[in-house]
Amino acid sequence: MRFEKRTPELRLRLEGWRSRFVLGLAGLGFLVLAGRAFWLQGFDHSFLQAKGEARYGRIVDMPASRGPVKDRHGQPLAISTPVESIWATPDEFEPSEAQMRALAKALGMTPAEIRQKVAHKDRQFAWVKRQISPEQAAKVVALGVPGVFQQREYRRFYPAGEVMAHVVGFTGIDDSGQEGIELAQQQWLAGVPGSRKVIKDRKGRIVEDVESLKVPRDGKALVLSIDQRLQFLAHRELKAAVEQNKAKGGSLVMLDARTGEVLALVNQPDYNPNNRANVTGRQTRNRSVTDIFEPGSTMKPFTIAAALEDGIVKPDTIVQSAGPLMIGGWSINDAHPHGALSVAQVIQKSSNVGTARIQLQMPAVRVERFYRELGFGAVPQTGFPGEAKGLLRPGTTWKPIEQATMAYGHGMSVSLLQLARAYTIFTGEGHLLPLSLVRRDAMPIGKPLVSKETAREVARMMEMAVGPGGTAPRAAVPGYRIAGKTGTAHKPEDGGYAEKKYVSSFSGFGPVSDPRYIVAVMIDEPGAGKHYGGDVAAPVFSSVMGAALRMMSVPPDAQPAHEAKVPARPATEARVASPGSEG
Asked: Are residues 496 and 363 in the same domain?
């Protein structure tokens, strides 16, 4: 093989060309970089500024306070208090063993629990513990643990505790409504968070507050129709009655007879919204709004009102109430047989047979229409979450026995709130009032359903039921004229009725001369030996109504000679031995 010998001059010439070419490329690159730098720094410097700020600037949320909830007199029912929450940046969280032990002690946690919270190192944010006191948070921050920070939040506090639990409800950890008014009025109560721009150092500490980007807007205050004094009273009496009667639960609704405002609404069992660690769904359920039951004989006044309005009967019309009343193989009876009774006495004695005979004289579709006009089969439209509309089948499908039993509240279901509202036709001269859980500043316009005369006649009949010889003498309030009606019904079970499970109820109003309050009481499955509404629910009504009338300085309207005297052993109300049960 032959190798050519290259001259040194040719070799130097070739290497010089290469070096100049590389030098030229490098110079061109520097010129491009210099031009770009000149352009960014002299003309378009926003890019560099944005990149720089991304390394030290942060947008920090500014929490807003949730609006307070108050009763009709301005007493606080739900308020927000400032608290601190501890969070960490997982990739910067590297405490020593001593720091970890101190941090766990300050937070009331174990080191293992803390490590689990910050286990995901790819995240920039992780809650360690939320809503602790400012004093506890200060101890945590003083430890100087790398990657651990605090943030201001708000926590909901309920001064009335379990007394107002079923009305107000509660919020979750993120301060959003979960139950009750807190959920129903979420948009009104919730504030709008703000934000601000800050400068942080490499350890995440704020070293400068640059500017406010959005001012937080606190939630608006909400004033309820509830009177906290009456709520305390109702809660105390209902709880005592449930315990005394060894009942499964109970509910009580109190309305302003003039405005339809809900003044008190309580349920048993209850719970403490400030400590929900062991609270069950059964406790949080607002039974008076969400649960339905067969109202029993509390429906009889509406049956009589419809018949009076249609001219089918008059208050002194004689009705044959002797039983049994046989309809399609079914037997309707009264607990204590009656002979011929006037329509007024049918209510006074709570005769199932008499009421059924009267209702069977009306077309089923007429009865159904009247029930629906009263609000049965439709939600009460208070805005409360989970309002029940009840069960009311079309009248065209009713069999004669079903129409007869509905006359005394069997074969249909209502909520206690619906039942209390329906009684406004007797206190509002025939007008059905809309309900409200928010305080009203003006009188509502009711819907006329029956005449003033009909409403007054039925009210007089219900006053007889509370007086001597009636089924509810234990509902009487000394010094005041009281009207109302008892109800006792077997509970539906497995397609039929449970033989020894009852719902006892009473609904009434007072004073009759100038109605101020409507109170409806329901006791679920009393188990202490008594189950009639006159024995179980009527005394609760008497205690609450009497105390409310005296508390509000309502003048007595009963003459001393006619004041009701409560007997030691009251008469029991009528009952039915076939479809359904006691009336």
From this structure: yes
- Residue 32: CB atoms within 10 A of its CB come to 10
209 pairs with which residues across the strands? Answer: 198
Mutual orientation of helices 364-373 and 300-309 as an angle, nearest 10°? 110
Residue pair 391/412 in contact (Cβ under 8 Å)? The answer is yes
Query: Is residue 183, in this structure, part of any structural domain at all?
Result: no
Buried b (16+ CB within 10 A) or exposed e, 338-350: beebbbbbbbbbb
Sign of CA dihedral 524, 527, 528, 529: positive
List, as one string, the DSSP characters of 110-126: -HHHHHHHT--TT-S-E
Rounded distance, CA 384 to CA 169, Å? 10
Residue 502: helix, strand or coil by DSSP?
Answer: strand
pLDDT tens per residue, range 71-99: 999 999 999 988 888 888 777 787 888 88
Question: How many domains is the chain partitioned into structurally?
Answer: 2
Domain, as residue range, for 86: 80-157
Q: 303 and 319 in contact (C-beta within 8 Å)? A: no
From 157, 182, 199, the end of a domain falls on 157
568 located within any domain: no
Chain length of the chain:
583
Active site residue 297: yes
What is residue 518's three-state secondary structure? Answer: strand
Contact 463, 515 (CB under 8 A): no
The pLDDT, as a whole number, for residue 181 is 95
Where are the strands (E) in 402-544, listed by range? 431-432, 447-448, 483-493, 496-510, 517-524
Give the burial class of 21: count Cβ atoms within 10 A of its Cβ; 0-12 exposed, 13-18 middle, 19 or more buried.
exposed
CATH number at residue 117: 3.90.1310.10
Q: How far is CA 405 from CA 185, 312, 331, 527, in A?
A: 39, 19, 10, 25
pLDDT in tens, 147-187: 888 878 888 999 999 999 999 999 988 888 999 999 999 99
Give the model's confidence band at 577: pLDDT under 50 very low, under 70 low, under 90 confident, else very high.
very low
User: What's the first-to-final CA gap in the chain, in angstroms?
Assistant: 127
d(CA 241, CA 46): 73
Residue 171 exposure: Cα atoms within 13 Å on the Cβ side: 24
Query: Are 375 and 262 part of one and the same domain?
Result: yes
Catalytic entry in 225, 297, 342, 351: 297
Confidence of residue 503 (pLDDT cuts 50, 70, 90): very high
C-alpha span between 250 and 190 (Å, rounded): 32
514 near 499, Cβ under 8 Å?
Answer: no
CB atoms within 10 A of CB 215: 11
CATH for 386: 3.40.710.10
What does the pLDDT read at residue 213? 63
Say what the pTM is: 0.82
128 and 237 share a domain? no
Quote the distance between the C-alpha of residue 480 and its chain's center.
Answer: 33
